[in-house]
Amino acid sequence: MPIESIVAEVAIPVPAPGTFHYSIPTELRGSLEIGQAVSVPFGRRRITGYVLDLFSEKLEDRSLKDVIGLVSPEPLFPADLIEVYKWIAHYYAHPLGEVLRTALPGASRSASRGVARLLEAGRLRAVEAGDEALDRLLQRLAESPRGAISIATLLREPGWTRALIGRAEKAQFLETGQSESRKALRVRTEELYELNCSARAARDAFPRPGPVRDRLIDYLDRFGPVSRAELKDAFRSAGPSLRQLRDRDLLEISERVLQPGAAERVVIDPADVEPRKPTEQQAGALDVLGQALQQGDFAAFLLHGVTGSGKTEVYLQLAARVLAEGGTALLLVPEIGLTPQFLARFRARFGERTVAVLHSGLTERERFDEWLRIRSGEAALVVGPRSAVFAPVEKLRLVVVDEEHDGSYKQEEGLRYNARDVALVRGRKAGAVVVLGSATPSLESLYNTQQGRYRLLQLNSRVTGRALPEVELVDLKEFPVSEPDAPAAALSPPMREAIESNWQAGGQAILLLNRRGFATTVVCTACGDHFRCSECDVSLTYHGRSHSVTCHWCGQTRPLPESCPSCRDRSGLQLVGHGTERLEEGMLALWPELRVDRMDADTTRSRSSHRRILDRFRAGEVDVLVGTQMVAKGHDFPRVTLVGVLHADSALHMPDFRASERTFQLVSQVAGRAGRGERPGRVLVQTWHPGHHAIRLAMAHDFEGFAKRELRFREGLWYAPFARLVMFRLSARDERCGERAATVCRDRIEELGRGLVTGPGQLRVLGPSPCPVYRARGRFRWQLLVKANGHRVLGALLQGLRSELPQLVGRQGGDARVVIDRDPYSML
Description:
By secondary structure, the protein is α/β, with parallel strands linked by helices. The chain has 7 domains: 7-110, GIY-YIG endonuclease (3-Layer(aba) Sandwich), CATH 3.40.1440; 112-182, no CATH class; 189-257, no CATH class; 270-459, P-loop containing nucleotide triphosphate hydrolases (Rossmann fold, 3-Layer(aba) Sandwich), CATH 3.40.50.300; 470-517 and 579-704, Rossmann fold, CATH 3.40.50.300; 520-576, no CATH class; 724-822, Alpha-Beta Plaits. The chain has a 7-stranded parallel beta sheet with strand order 14-15-13-16-17-12-18, with helices on both faces. Strands 19-29-28-20-27-26 form a 6-stranded parallel beta sheet, with helices on both faces. Strand 26 (596-599), helix 19 and strand 27 (624-627) form a beta-alpha-beta unit. Helix 23 (735-754) crosses helix 24.
């Protein structure tokens, strides 16, 4: 007889370290499982937590609160994922409960909030004179339609404190309690109906015959159990007769789980249904990877394949082998925009029900249903961007990270994890094969092949046999712009000529301009002032469609004023710079018959907008696709014969040691969109710095030459991959408090670091220094960069700091905060 568990270890999604223990009440003993969501008391709140372990003995000297109840009847994740969650919490120095908040669908959580409700004595008191703050509080509650307001809302009012609310509660003017602020989604079910007696006995239970009721009785007798939906199809109005049978207790009513349909419909290309014959290089890669799958142990591979070399077909054929052996696979892409193309190819090959998709563009219900399909084992392949790395698959045999170099795999808010690295950890713990694919691999991954951690596989030629497109440089110094406000002034004469000739020849074009909006800033020619964000040290971008200026850091937006806010001049406002919106408008002014579409953060806000834009372009309904870096990533458009890069060096002068690498990758990737079909491609790159090695080597498609040069630079300055990095970002609303917090933080890091190193050169602390964007969202910002010679020293440093540093920084005042970013991707 199994031992009954009486204590549960629960992870709670709050910014607190560790886990919490709760007593399992008698009615839940025997039904609680690891991976289930449960409702538990936490302080004054009722909150959803996740069961990580069960114990059959009480913890010594501890009085435990009870689990309130089950939120999910089925476990949301397999037990073997707990080790991955714990690794993430340890590696990124992040609370375990917050890791689960990030990993699991939000629809799995219910939550409550504290509320204050007005009592009758308080209602009477609200009309009397007396304590002004108390009277205002009671009057506010009296004016509330429900007589209740959340405590968090009340505390935002000046002069209203917890002490005031407590005083009012003690005087019995109000009461505080909990109100459910979020309800967890449940598995969808439906009722099934059948007779619990013979048809004759059911008819005899009524004094008179009923035509519809008698037909319903016969139907239930013959086909039961049936659902209400089936009855609705068979009968025009079965509801009243069904209620009569239920009232006389003639029905057996059961329940079954509704099987959700697959989320995100995609258009299937018939050409993708059957496997394609692999090229010689693809076959070689498949042989090596197939042998690794057969061995059943963890192995990591870097698949370096030029653009158009057929990396996706390699993934498809590997997935087929995994499915044939009863395994599962995770297939990651860097952005939501790439999901439809990837998803369509996999569903064409393996069917809709086998392939699930997870991303933030789905509704909560869709994401929750897909999660349940994966958890039940119905969907064995999971496609999606970085969050899909947490999919609850079991029997994991294969993990693919396509475009592994892409910075979108790194989350820049909250839990700052890199999905590529988490994918490697999942693969290692599951004994799976991990394939990192890219035409321009990250230098960290390339270095890992040189160190023997990964095995390098190469696809050096396109599947069509065509050479990579010729890249032509346009030196912008040779084409000065005399009229900056002219239509499409961002296009040099050679670029205009190339666009027109390509259009006349019936080809499609992609133009990359990595600046969204209409104009990058607004300048007053009368006083020289330019529009800046009041909360951030950045210029406001003008958006023509909304006739507004917006801060792309904090989101602050306001209408473009008719006069300069500084000097009140009404005639001198000038729009400076070109964004994708201005480029699109300018091209239509030059070529009114040209069909132009735009893909950037402004045009892809709505649901399925990525897919609609790409579907139109793929169908040939668009001649030129203008966009930011979204258009450079992994798309396969056989009709594209021209690619134009308008400002190739826009990222070169950023204060970031990866600036050259990003420029090389961006130019190489977007150039690879050209000439993937029957016709050869052409690439034009506009630049102010044609001699820079990143642009020159991208033009020559020379990844090896670039990597060799860049790795020498990194090694000399002791940057990744030769050093392990962690960034400490400090911010405060008060500038002096923030600077003091940064200094205190540095001192503590250096003090702790001295006790961890055994020799010189093992740990360096750079800073604190102001961030390149010194003020953002109303907060002054500093950064410290710590370099270490290995994960061990860095890990020990973070474990020593993770609990004490936030409190140490917070004590400096000014709402000072610290964020720990291990393996930072952005230096801004």
